[in-house]
Specification:
Layout: E1 10-15, E2 39-40, E3 43-44, E4 48-49, E5 53-61, E6 64-69, E7 72-80, E8 85-93, H1 98-103, E9 108-109, H2 120-123, E10 130-136, E11 151-169, E12 175-190, E13 199-200, E14 204-205, E15 210-211, E16 216-217, E17 245-248, E18 264-273, E19 277-279, E20 289-291, E21 297-305, H3 314-320, E22 327-331, E23 338-345, E24 348-355, E25 363-371, E26 381-386
Parallel strand pairs: 9-26
Antiparallel strand pairs: 1-4, 1-10, 2-3, 5-8, 6-7, 8-12, 10-11, 11-12, 11-18, 13-16, 14-15, 17-22, 18-21, 19-20, 21-25, 22-23, 23-26, 24-25
Amino acid sequence: MSQRHLYQSDLVYFGPTGSNNPGTGALQSNGVWGLISGSVASGQNYIAELYRIQKVDEGFNRKLKVLNQFGQLGQVDLVQIEPPDVTLNVSYVLSNLVNEDIIGFNVNKAGDATAIGCLSGILTNANAGKNIFVKGVPEGYDAISNSATDYDVMSFGNVFISSYTSQGRVLDFPTVDVNFSVINQQAQHVWGLNTGNYAITPAVYPASGTNITGWGYVLPTGTTSFNSAGLSNVSGLNVLRPGDMVLNLGLNAGDGFFYPGDIKIQSYNLSFNLALENLTQLGNKYYYAKLPKFPVEATLTIDALAGDLQTGSLVEIVNNNLTFNPSITINAPGTSNTVVYYQLAGAKLETQSNSLAIGSNKTVNMTFKSTIGSASDLAHNIFMSGICANI
């Protein structure tokens, strides 16, 4: 029995509703999602590891409704008549855009910076409703390179991305936080997989709330970096560094009160919230769909040390109402080779503020806002490109 649980013992995986048919090992059509990361029996495993994980928060909240009646002060029962809320938040350090590609964002390859918006697959529901697995090996062992067939799994079925935040600051690694909305959660102890026993996926049929049957999974042996699986043209960088970030806000003279060439950016925060709408109907125990509410807004906030003032007027800024396409580029250390590229297309400068106090430098804060358009909208969108799993 474990005395405690440390980060060395866990790995996080992402995959479809199932990877293989437990009986034959044959591939199923809805299990083919473009990334092979291991093998199961005579078939292939489409469950992929997520890398550089720093934190996982999860939990559920059941919504119980009190049943009372005349003649009785105490409750008759507490009954659950709507689905529970299951939340899952995952944080990781950026070393490339492999994780983004795996969890369902459309990531353009390096060189195709604005080919397609990052939410294209999610907005068309093509990348929705996946599974996440948190594998735990016994206390005292590293999960990476551990090929043991006896382990614990906390898994999450019918997972939908609800928000995404990428952030970077001086003197720290760039990081990402992804929040998921989940329909089902289950805990399992898995053993003897090499003898033909398969763990059952956590995915459920929304109408009945019963587990999807006929699907089994095996979690691949963990690796330190994505390219250690033998994919030579994927970045093997351990991490990206703040000194290799380049922010292009697109500001020109008169677009703000500070000279654009003299703003020393200290941090950025690029985020969007899909504000998922839970759709249900009579006869269903769970939501039959979780879809984004529109409009979906995206923001880019930057904090900087203020430089010289420039001539400008808020009246002119309002009258001009200019559109900007601010971008964030993170290169491989010491090179101009782009590993991560974000662009917020069709953005407006919503806020600008500055602050100065005794003992500190004057700072300026700017927020750019845009809405996310359809899969074919290249004028209003968020674009991700660089080194990814889509090879």
